[in-house]
Amino acid sequence: MLSSLRGQEVTIHFLDGTSARSGTLEEADANFVKYRDEFQVLYIPISSIRSVSIETKERQRPRVGFSP
User: Fold this and answer.
1) Domain of life here (predicted)?
2) Could you give the count of Cα atoms lying within 13 Å of 39 in the half-sphere of its Cβ?
3) Are 28 and 6 in contact (CB under 8 A)?
4) Is residue 63 part of a domain?
5) In this structure, is residue 60 part of a structural domain?
């Protein structure tokens, strides 16, 4: 299933609560995922990944402040 995301910009969420953002999923097999961002190439074991997400459209940020 991850191989269908090849070449797309994804966010990988890990089991420990951290995430890797703004990178491209380059390869995926049964054991590892190859993920590249502008600074490094990561080979991530499948067993450490909680979820993978793709942003399909940009979220509008809520307005902050008071209106008269």
Assistant:
1) Bacteria
2) 3
3) yes
4) no
5) no
What backbone phi and psi angles, to 5 degrees, belong to 48?
A: -100, 0
Centroid of chain to Cα 61: 20
Spell 22-51 as b/e; 16+ CB within 10 A means b: ebebeebeeeebebeeeeeeeebeeeebee
Identify the CATH number of the domain in which residue 41 sits.
2.30.30.100
Q: What's at 11, amino acid-wise?
A: T
Read off the pTM: 0.75
pLDDT tens profile 4-47: 888 889 999 999 999 998 899 999 988 999 999 999 999 999 99
